[in-house]
């Protein structure tokens, strides 16, 4: 299978017809001639959100019913976490809860997935809209209007991400949506309902991030080499001795504009306020996101634990996230006590990029914790050695992994790059997953019946 071709854009103005290629669409520009009155004749794509939401109900054949909040688990009532809340937040790295998948953990994963879906629903995808790349709803109505009524949470902060890419001068003549530098990326919400706080066993703070939406965010995704995280001490060398993360993700997290704070500054400001307000009571920080949002969630968790010594338990629930950092970054996360649960679709190419994984944590005997080893398989040995020597492409997977597969679902009739990465597919797979030996709830009865028949056959043979 050929690798996905992400968004590409030329920094020069060609004299012949050019194409700006996105992962799920192609936008064709008319021939451009150099002149003082040059203008771009590029139509804004219609239904832009379909680039990020390519799977619809017609892609499922009699799908397992799934709707936000009201139906997230196989149980009829939300489970009362109580004193076990830290276990479900990963304090023991979810040991014994992933295979088979604990029903109560399933409910929590889906609940946080719904918060990410709310970020998608709240975002204005329409390039021709005067409010493009902003949140369509007010903070007080965001959850209700995005399909999450009665969660017990209240949105306290809107979050924006800014690209640090320096654009060429000719971009001023392009449609404004192509050069949108800062855009709404997610929100912070705090559980305020007393009954929900009692059920959860603590007050929960959620930070939810959407995935890639703007052209500049696509371009940041392409900046795939590792770069060192800012540090107060001496700057490490290129041998990978210090924590390194993907350049584009770090740019979106730390860049600011003349009119907007950086995402990092917004989060630090809000977390400081929340810790001052609720720091004396049981508190958790749950950071969740899909795709680019999953990467930003991991960076956010690292930043919070690095800068707030009194930070409570910080948990990341990521869906379809790309790789974020190197081995040193992973080790730092683990020493901080940050808990990361990565929901991965084996058929999703995005989870296999960027770079190569050269560290599979071989000291770990638990098969479910081991990382894939992908040292540029198929590439010439000198290229592989060059990558390992420079460490600029040597990534390491973080946290625990819940691995699913679109091929295990009897309801998905089409398996392609777009649908395998879509958030709705992830929620569908989590909702149906049972265990590695019985991968989907719809097939559970069939598997059990088969095993029962095999046992009967064996008993007859023994007689």
CATH class: Alpha Beta
Q: What is the fourth-level CATH superfamily?
A: Alpha/Beta hydrolase fold, catalytic domain
CATH architecture: 3-Layer(aba) Sandwich
Overall 3D shape: globular
Q: In total, how many domains does the architecture comprise?
A: 1
Describe, in short, the structure shown.
This is Fungal lipase-type domain-containing protein. The protein is an alpha/beta fold.
Q: Secondary structure elements and their pairing?
A:
Blueprint: E1 18-21, E2 26-29, H1 85-88, H2 103-122, H3 142-145, E3 153-162, E4 182-191, H4 194-200, E5 203-209, H5 215-221, E6 226-228, E7 244-246, H6 247-254, H7 263-278, E8 283-290, H8 292-307, E9 313-319, H9 327-336, E10 339-345, E11 356-357, H10 381-390, E12 394-395, E13 400-404, H11 417-421, H12 423-432, H13 441-462
Parallel strand pairs: 5-8, 8-9, 9-10, 10-13, 11-12
Antiparallel strand pairs: 1-2, 3-4, 4-5, 6-7
Helix pairs in contact: 2-12, 5-6, 6-8, 7-8
Key features of this structure:
13 helices; 7-stranded mixed β-sheet; single chain; 463 residues; alpha/beta; two-stranded antiparallel ribbon; globular; Rossmann fold
């Amino acid at each position: 299978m050929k690798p996905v071709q992400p968004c590409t854009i030329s920094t020069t103005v060609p004299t012949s017809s050019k194409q700006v290629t996105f992962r799920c669409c192609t936008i064709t520009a008319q021939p451009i001639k150099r002149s003082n009155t040059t203008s771009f004749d590029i139509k804004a794509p219609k239904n832009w959100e379909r680039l990020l939401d390519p799977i619809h109900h017609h892609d499922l054949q009699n799908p397992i019913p799934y709707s936000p909040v009201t139906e997230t688990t196989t149980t009829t009532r939300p489970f009362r976490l109580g004193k076990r809340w830290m276990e479900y937040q990963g304090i023991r790295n979810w040991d014994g809860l992933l295979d088979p998948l604990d029903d109560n953990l399933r409910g929590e994963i889906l609940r946080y997935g719904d918060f990410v879906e709310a970020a998608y629903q709240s975002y204005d995808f329409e390039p021709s809209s005067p409010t493009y790349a902003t949140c369509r709803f007010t903070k007080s109505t965001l959850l209700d209007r995005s399909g999450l009524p009665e969660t017990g949470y209240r949105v306290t902060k809107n979050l924006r991400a800014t690209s640090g890419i320096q654009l060429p001068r000719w971009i001023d003549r392009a449609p404004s949506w192509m050069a949108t530098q800062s855009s709404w990326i997610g929100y912070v919400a705090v559980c305020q309902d007393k009954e929900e706080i009692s059920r959860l066993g603590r007050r929960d703070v959620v930070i939810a991030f959407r995935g890639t939406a703007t052209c500049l965010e696509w371009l940041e995704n392409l900046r795939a080499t590792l770069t060192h995280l800012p540090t107060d001490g001496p700057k490490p060398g290129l041998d990978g001795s210090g924590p390194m993360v993907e350049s584009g993700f770090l740019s979106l997290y730390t860049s600011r504009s003349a009119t907007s704070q950086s995402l990092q500054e917004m989060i630090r400001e809000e977390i400081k306020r929340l810790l001052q307000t609720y720091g004396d009571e049981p508190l958790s920080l749950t950071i969740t996101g899909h795709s680019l949002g999953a990467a930003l969630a991991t960076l956010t968790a690292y930043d919070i634990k690095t800068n707030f010594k009194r930070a409570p338990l910080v948990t990341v629930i990521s869906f379809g996230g790309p790789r974020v950092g190197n081995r040193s970054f992973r080790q730092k996360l683990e020493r901080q006590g940050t808990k990361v649960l990565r929901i991965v679709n084996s058929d999703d190419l995005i989870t296999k990029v960027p770079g190569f994984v050269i560290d599979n944590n071989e000291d770990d005997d638990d098969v479910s914790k081991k990382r894939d080893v992908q040292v540029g398989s198929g590439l010439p040995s000198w290229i592989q050695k060059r990558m390992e020597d420079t460490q600029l492409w040597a990534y390491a997977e973080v946290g625990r992994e819940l691995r699913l597969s679109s091929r295990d679902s009897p309801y998905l009739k089409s398996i392609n790059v777009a649908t395998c990465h879509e958030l709705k597919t992830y929620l569908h797979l989590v909702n149906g997953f049972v265990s590695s030996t019985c991968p989907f709830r719809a097939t559970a009865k069939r598997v059990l019946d088969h095993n029962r028949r095999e046992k009967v056959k064996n008993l007859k043979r023994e007689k």
